[in-house]
C-alpha cells in the first residue's frame, strides 16, 4: 500500500534494471479506467490491462506491484478533483453532494470499489477538504464536521449505487404497462390501497428522480441545521 500511495501522490516508481519503461503510470491508469468504464470492476485485471498496452503481465508489475495498488490509483483518478463550491454551508454541501453523484454517474464502477478506510489520496482528500471548508461555516466542532461529511458522502454513494443497479437491471420497470396491469389489481384486492394509489399515479417507481434526490438531501441538511442550531 505504501508504494501505491506514493504513486498516487505523484512519486515515480523506483527505478529497476532493464530497459526504460515504455509507459507511464498515468497511461496504466487510463487503460484501467477505459476497461472499467466498459466492463465494470468485474472485468478489471492486470493481465487484461497489460494486453491493452501491448505489455506482458510481468512487465506491468514494473509500474504497479498488485491489483490493490491499481485500485487505489483508479479510485483517485475516477473521482477527480472537486468542484468549486458556494461559500454558505448549506448551498456548498448541496453542490458537493450533487457533484459527487454526477461523478459516480460518469463512472458507475466507483461505487463497487472497496472502501479500505479514511481517504488518503489527493483527489479524495481534496473533496473532503472542500466540504470541510464549507462545513466550517456551521461552527460545529471538527469531529461533528467529519461526521456530517461522512453522512453526506454516504447519501451520495447510496443514491449513485441505486441508480447504477437499476440501470443494469433487466427486470421490467414497475411502471411498465404489463407490471402495472398485473400488480394493481392484486394491490387493490389484497390490502395495499396506499401502494395501489401510488402505483397508478406514477409515484411508485423504480428510479429515484431528481425531486426524490433533492427531497432526501434536503432532509439530511435539515438534520445538520438542527444540530447547528442546537436543537438536534
UniProtKB/TrEMBL annotation:
InterPro entries for the chain: Homeodomain-like_sf, HTH-type_TetR-like_transc_reg, HTH_TetR, Repressor_TetR_C, Tet_transcr_reg_TetR-rel_C_sf
DNA-binding region location: 45-64
PROSITE patterns xref list: HTH_TETR_2
Swiss-Prot/TrEMBL GO biological process terms: negative regulation of DNA-templated transcription
Domain of life (superkingdom): Bacteria
HTH tetR-type domain residues: 22-82
Keywords carried by this UniProt record: DNA-binding, Transcription, Transcription regulation
GO MF annotations in UniProt: DNA-binding transcription factor activity; transcription cis-regulatory region binding
PANTHER family: HTH-TYPE TRANSCRIPTIONAL REGULATOR RUTR, TRANSCRIPTIONAL REGULATORY PROTEIN
Protein's UniProt name: TetR family transcriptional regulator
